[in-house]
Amino acid sequence: MREHEVRVHRSDEEFARHEELAWKLAELATEDVPVDDDVAEMVVNRVLDNAAVSAASLLRAPVVAARSQALDHPVSRGGEGARIVGTTQTTSPEWAAWANGVAVRELDFHDTFLAAEYSHPGDNVPALVAVAQHVGCDGASLLRGIVTAYEVQVDLVRAISLHRHKIDHVAHLGPSVAAGLGTMLGLSTEVVHQAIGQALHTTTATRQSRKGAISTWKAYAPAFAGKVAVEAVDRAMRGQTSPAPVYEGEDGVVAWLLDGPDAVYRVPLPEPGEPRRAILDTYTKEHSAEYQAQAVIDLARRLHREHPALRDPANVERIVLHTSHHTHVVIGSGANDPQKYDPTASRETLDHSVPYIFAVALQDGGWHHVDSYARERAGRPDTVELWRKVSTVEDPEWTERYHASDPARKAFGARVEARLTDGTTVVDEIAVADAHPLGAHPFTREQYEAKLATLAAGVLTDAEVARFTDLARRLPELTAEEVRDLQVAAPEELLETVPLPAGLF
């Protein structure tokens, strides 16, 4: 890897276009580099993972609304259209990217990469699949596009913090989708450069979508970035240009939205010809909760077994989770959001409340993507009493480990210190989630396929799960016709149990 320096340049300062970060990302996207076998295997895993969480969310209101919007848009004239998740119907690729992106994101249950910024790189996949289906790309081209998208997003996330300036993390997703589409479609560096600039310029929004009472927009934000990136690529292919230098300009993203005119970022990028392996540094979720809660759930279920007295709030004086700055201020008590302790809060808010998540996992000894968020579960009196005894504090060591570059030291866990009413103390800790590559039970292909089978139960037929699993396994070799079938479909009678909401379209 090499480091590319990013800093602000005055308008009257000579700054060659080939030194812009957007141009470097476009070069990355347009270089023909073979895909390593283990990288291809992981892409298959993540396609299965996305299908699993999409199936589980098909009847949820945000997904139904997004699907309804997509169904109201016909196939555009430039191709054969893209499949809408859960159905066999097609629409134009940007609307398929929208609907399918919401389905992937709704349950907060797919892959993650955490560094200077947060990300869910699997959010790239719906837009790329939609465009591949529309224009007739084969599996090998789709594979290469996904590999590029993961590489670009992970490289940006390693170096550039958005949340520090209250910018939502999807500002890294727009450029990565555009870059991935550039690879998949075989576009020129010039076209991809313009598309990346437009995608970034139109996907910078505030983090209020993940603050306080969190709304259904949390699921829509990455889908919006994917849809916008598809449209940006379309405009760039038609010869239209974008604001430049979009990162480094005097009135650009770095100068006014991030660290300011004196900022210097160093973005790690692959050397020319170097394999794109960033997807291997990402990790999926065993539990439907924000990633920084994954290890905490595993710690709680261990305490459930080993210290059953902690389940009863009458036995507990207080429970403190010592953890990283990010965990403390984003999903912990350091966010200063009273909603994180509110039994009537939305599912999206509870998903971002580690005190709630720890309390429920501690009492139940596990986590369920539906039952653990049920209104009656959140409102159970003994849970509310225990929940309000749980708090977080930042521990400098956990913060340092969160940002560590050494994978063996990098950690997203916590140390729990529980004080019981009899004066005894229980102390335990966990560094990474059990499903993490360095965890107690790392996910392999078997676990990804099991996750799909489990989450699809009652939603997809066994035959449909088997059909999709077979296609996903063969992704690198799929024909264009087979790629057009790379989407899960539920029985029509199941989808009809939830009415489609009416809107403008």
From TrEMBL:
Signal sequence interval, chain numbering: none
A single GO molecular function term of this UniProt record: 2-methylcitrate dehydratase activity
Keyword set, alphabetical order: Lyase
Record-linked InterPro entries: MmgE/PrpD_sf, MmgE/PrpD_sf_1, MmgE/PrpD_sf_2, MmgE_PrpD, MmgE_PrpD_C, MmgE_PrpD_N
Domain MmgE/PrpD N-terminal: 19-263
EC number, UniProt record: 4.2.1.79
Reaction catalysed by this enzyme: (2S,3S)-2-methylcitrate = 2-methyl-cis-aconitate + H2O
Similarity-based family: Belongs to the PrpD family.
Assembly and binders: Monomer.
Protein name: 2-methylcitrate dehydratase
